Amino acid sequence: MSAQPRASILLLAYNQERTVQCAAASCLAQDCEPLEIILSDDASTDSTFALLQAIAADYRGPHRVWARRNVENLGIGAHYNELLAASRGQLLVSAAGDDISEPDRVRRLLAAWDATDGRADLIASHVIDLDIDDEVHEIIRVDDLSVYKSPRDWASRRPYIIGAGHAFTRRMMARFGPLAREVFYEDQIMVFRAIASGGAVTVDAPLVRYRRGGTSRKLVFDSAEQMHWWTHRQLERELAEVRQLISDAQVAGCEPLVRDHVVPWHTKATYLARINEARSWSERRAAYDEAALLPRWWRVRKIFPSIFPRGTFLVRKGLVAIHAWRVRLGLSRRKHEL
């Protein structure tokens, strides 16, 4: 393929040897104009990259397909930055190493983009819930992004979106710059950038089979220490998202609006991070006092896991066991056939 493609599929994979072949195959099966398809591995420790290399080498078709690998594990934000530099398309379609794109996905995304005369900076779609056992569940509908006309609309009610179904423009990313390395949750960041630029629209169809674990999987920890580590990591990711949004708001000229919107969010995540790491009553009390914007009862309730991590771990473990029991008895929500 000699001409520069209008769209690039960016498949981001990490330690997904069980699912990455189906994910990559769904990208190669797109029934649309020729695309650039980059199968990108984030320094996996399993056979993910070898599988992607073989898929790219065996492909014979209209799309330009190649596999690449990061030298070190970068995480979501920095991985996107690498792919922005490596790709050529003007519309960049996200794909994950455990999701499956419908064959008409890119064609419909491009049609929606063309319908805006190329003005929109992000195209979203609904997704289909796919569990770890490849069972199909219900359609997960996201918000209609066309009703969000400005950052003020975004701040008044942040849209419900799922980044697995997104395509976004190169020009939008060039305007706001690379994502911070710490960014893991890019969904709202991408949507905010689009709303603050050329706008966003939603295709009213499910175009991705999105593997989010299904209805029968709950997060399971092996120890209180593992639960503590996971909690710390998640809070750091939330804080990184807030910092990126504030930085992007500076570029868009609406920092006061966005900062006011994220203050409660930032205060909550900061408080949880501080009490999660606190090792004394004085540290917990200082964190409690400095988070006075938050409800008193909520602050008190959230202190208990940091004081009794073992008890919290056992309670969570018991709840997971009860959920599994309900699933076995058929008491959880039923799967929906599509």
Question: What layout of secondary structure does this protein have?
Answer:
Elements: E1 7-13, H1 20-28, E2 36-41, H2 48-58, E3 64-69, H3 76-86, E4 91-96, E5 100-101, H4 105-115, E6 122-130, E7 136-140, H5 151-156, E8 167-169, H6 170-176, H7 187-195, E9 200-211, H8 224-252, H9 255-277, H10 281-290, H11 296-307, H12 309-328
Helix pairs in contact: 1-2, 7-8, 8-9, 8-12, 9-11, 11-12
- The protein's oligomeric status is single chain
Structural class: alpha/beta
What is the overall silhouette? globular
Q: Helical region count?
A: 12
Q: What's the structural domain tally?
A: 2
**First-to-last CA distance:** 36 Å
Give the beta-strand count. 9
What can be said about the biggest beta sheet? 9 strands, mixed
What is the string of helix and strand elements?
EHEHEHEEHEEHEHHEHHHHH
Strand content: 15-25%
CATH homologous superfamily of the largest domain - what is it?
A: Spore Coat Polysaccharide Biosynthesis Protein SpsA, Chain A
Highest CATH level, the class of the largest domain: Alpha Beta
What number is the mean pLDDT? Answer: 89
Radius of gyration: 21 Å
Helix fraction, binned, reads 40-55%
**Which architecture of the largest domain per CATH?**
Alpha-Beta Complex
Low-confidence stretches: 333-338
Predict the CATH topology of the largest domain.
Spore Coat Polysaccharide Biosynthesis Protein SpsA, Chain A
Descriptive tags:
alpha/beta; 12 helices; nine-stranded mixed beta sheet; 338 residues; disordered C terminus; 2 domains; Spore Coat Polysaccharide Biosynthesis Protein SpsA, Chain A
